[in-house]
Amino acid sequence: MLLCNTQSPPESPWTASLIVRLVSGWPNSRFNPSEGFLLQHIFLTLQLMKSVTEECPDITRIYTIGKSYTGLKLYVMEISDNPGKHELGEPEFRYVAGMHGNEALGRELVLNLMQYLCKEYKKGNQRVVRLVTETRIHLLPSMNPDGHEVAYKKGSELAGWAEGRYSYEGIDMNHNFPDLNNIMWDAQETAADPSKVSNHYIPIPEYYTQEDVAPETRAVISWMQDIPFVLSANLHGGELVVTYPFDCTRDWAPQENTPTADDAFFRWLATVYASTICVATVLVCGGVM
Ligand SMILES: [Zn+2]
């Protein structure tokens, strides 16, 4: 969607501001007194999100799921016909971006998506109207605002590949969530009937709570416990790859198919995403992994 928009003339100040930021980076530092912290992107991200809620107040809501290590809020935009409410039978979906703070494109895509959904809903785009009325969409543009600040301040010319990638404490959030796959596989190995082992809900193990878990990771985990998400995606940058569950192999085998019960659906989703990206960017794509 973003790529399509950048190929056509800006339709509104929103789109124009986004393109400017993509090309030239953020404006100078600002101080947000309500946060008491020198902020670059989080202030402007919030400003942009607020402009969306002002434009589409009936279908949007901004909320926070917690704070980063340095105290920056993790803002989420909710888009639905009844914001703030879980409606029976209406699936909950989320996009998370910026887990690696130096991968900036995901945040821009998510910010652009919220603008797009608002504008198209108002225009009566039937596909978007259906999405807004029949699902509840949650968009977290920046899961690692501390890392993004570090990467931004260094600049793309001076930053190494890891500058701003991790949390302020040096934690890679991409490997910071509990490994529930192996708990399930271990249980299947010892069970009299492996098909009876639950693959639906596995509690977080006790030992995990004693490990180094970033506050940002904890915030996302409790967010997932609060809202019954049925589907989500996490946007990264730098690789042309789509991964889907179970995104690891048993015993760290170099190659092994570890499908979920929803494998056909995940493969279809990944293929749709990968082929759409290929069309939008005129890239030669090898396939889905
Ligand atoms: Zn990443």
TrEMBL record:
Report if keyword Membrane is assigned.
yes
Query: Cofactors per UniProt?
Result: Zn(2+)
MF terms from GO for this chain are:
metallocarboxypeptidase activity; zinc ion binding
Its transmembrane ranges are 265-288
Q: Which keywords has UniProt assigned to this entry?
A: Carboxypeptidase, Hydrolase, Membrane, Metal-binding, Metalloprotease, Protease, Transmembrane, Transmembrane helix, Zinc
What's in the GO CC field? extracellular space
Tell me which domain of life the UniProt entry assigns to the organism this sequence originates from.
Answer: Eukaryota
Where would I find the Peptidase M14 domain in this sequence? 35-289
Task: Reply yes or no: does the keyword Hydrolase apply.
Answer: yes
Question: What does the entry give for GO biological process?
Answer: proteolysis
- Show the InterPro entries listed in the entry: CARBOXYPEPT_ZN_1, CARBOXYPEPT_ZN_2, Peptidase_M14, Peptidase_M14_domain
Which SUPFAM superfamilies does this one have? Zn-dependent exopeptidases
Instruction: Enumerate the PANTHER family for this protein.
Output: CARBOXYPEPTIDASE X1-RELATED, PROTEASE M14 CARBOXYPEPTIDASE
The text of the family note is:
Belongs to the peptidase M14 family.
Q: What is this protein called?
A: Carboxypeptidase X, M14 family member 1
Q: What is the lineage of its organism?
A: Eukaryota, Metazoa, Chordata, Craniata, Vertebrata
